[in-house]
Amino acid sequence: MKIVQAQRMEDSPWQYLTEERTLNNPLVLVFGSRFLLEKQEIIADVKDEFPYEHIIFGSTAGEIAGINVKDETIVVSAIEFEKASFLIRHENILDYNKDARQLGQALGSSIPPERLAHVFVVSEGTYMNGSSLIAGMSQVLEKRVALTGGLCGDGSRFEKTLAGYQEAPKVGEVIAVALYGDTLDVSFASFGGWIPFGPERIVTRSEDNILYEMDGVPALEIYKRYLGDKANELPQASLLFPLNITFEDKPEPVVRTILNIDSAENSMILAGDVPMNSKAQLMMASVDGIASGAAKAAELGMKKRKKKPELALLVSCIGRKLVMDQRIEEEIEEVFEVIGKQSVIAGFYSYGEIAPFKEGHSCELHNQTMTLTLISE
């Protein structure tokens, strides 16, 4: 595997982070600021500097390059596989009347199953119910094939996200990278480090990703009670206090970010589904706890690997970034210490992370986690 990685700001030249420069038919991942990805001259410059066919764009809430976390930049990681191959498929949620499950089924059905080793997803994050997207894709893909990836970001603005394949990125795009070949060694993990507090409450009224009531009381009323003065800062403050959701039929809880609130309905819109009769509990975080969670994710990802990873794709959450603030690179450094210096690290801060809990488990949408996809040949 050969990897070229470079970055640039709007008014600066390209800075190469790897010695390799020329590749043959690589997979090119471009993660960057939404504002920059909206500029035609930036897209043209990326294509001039990386004149390859298979270019994927995704907007972020922060770009990861090596152990550094950047804002308002473009980070390009071009990967040439030695023996493995890849296939890219894409759909747009606006073509499916914002039905994420239907889109997921169509996207999964378009991926040939023979020798399929892994699927990495770069999804828009504006309209997407990530849980439904994953459910749709998982319904048609073989159970042995894992999904990882994330929902694109837009800083802490939550205005719109962009993604694209081959052409200028736009709202609504969902891209799946299917990896093929027996030579691939792909592992993954997802871990948070957030701390539950307060009582567990039963979800007594919900619809998909909208939470109306817990214990028969309006959900937003309960949430504001716990937030106190910070309730005046909603919905931004919700990124610092996600919910721990335990489904009736699943052994492991998932973390859900509150994307928005509806004061008229006294409800909260979450980044993924929150089923009736599941249990919900508020969470908070410390900087040290989040950094330790990243290290735990890396330790889980390194278990049972046949060789050390050459490429580490990291998808972390905007909520973690807001909590850690100027110390944000500590969680990347924790990952780097565990996986080893031979790995090229790339990735982005997201509005939702996609991964199974561990090998053999079904894929889930996570929030507020560090999610890793570790790849080598």
Overview of this protein structure:
The protein has helices at residues 34-37, 40-49, 100-109, 130-140, 219-227, 287-302, 318-324, 329-339; strands spanning 2-9, 15-16, 27-32, 54-59, 63-65, 68-70, 73-80, 85-92, 116-123, 146-151, 163-165, 173-180, 185-191, 195-207, 210-214, 217-218, 243-246, 254-256, 258-262, 267-270, 279-284, 311-317, 344-350, 352-356, 363-366, 370-376. The protein is α+β, with helices and mostly antiparallel strands. Strands 14, 15, 16, 17, 18, 19, 20 and 21 form an eight-stranded antiparallel sheet that branches. A six-stranded mixed sheet has the order 2-1-7-3-4-11. Strand 1 and strand 2 form a beta hairpin. Helix 3 runs parallel beside helix 4 (130-140). The longest helix is centred in the last third of the chain and has 16 residues, at 287-302. It is globular.
The helix-and-strand class reads alpha+beta
- Overall shape: it is globular
Number of H- or I-type helical stretches: 8
Subunit organisation of the chains:
single chain
Labels describing this entry:
377 residues; 8-stranded antiparallel sheet; 6-stranded mixed sheet; 8 helices; 21% helix
